[in-house]
Design brief:
65 residues, five-stranded mixed beta sheet, mainly beta, globular, 1 helix
Length: 65
């Protein structure tokens, strides 16, 4: 299925946000996910199903000093 991931159309073979984060090998503690412009809490990732043409933005938090 095709989704828009961080502004680029991508083909993905996953059905929910949890699986998408795992497939991208992201550290789930350091990201926030926007699904169709709505923030999705981490405990809802498995139940947040992806559909064709959905938009997902992955935001990374970086600490520094």
């Amino acid at each position: 299925m095709e989704i828009t991931l961080n502004g680029e159309v991508k083909k993905v073979g996953v059905k929910n946000i949890y699986d998408l984060v795992k497939s991208l090998e992201l550290d789930s503690d350091g990201v926030v996910i926007l699904h169709n412009d709505e923030i999705v809490k981490k405990d809802l990732w498995q139940g947040s199903h992806l559909n064709v043409k959905d938009s997902v933005e992955v935001l990374y938090f970086v600490s520094g000093g």
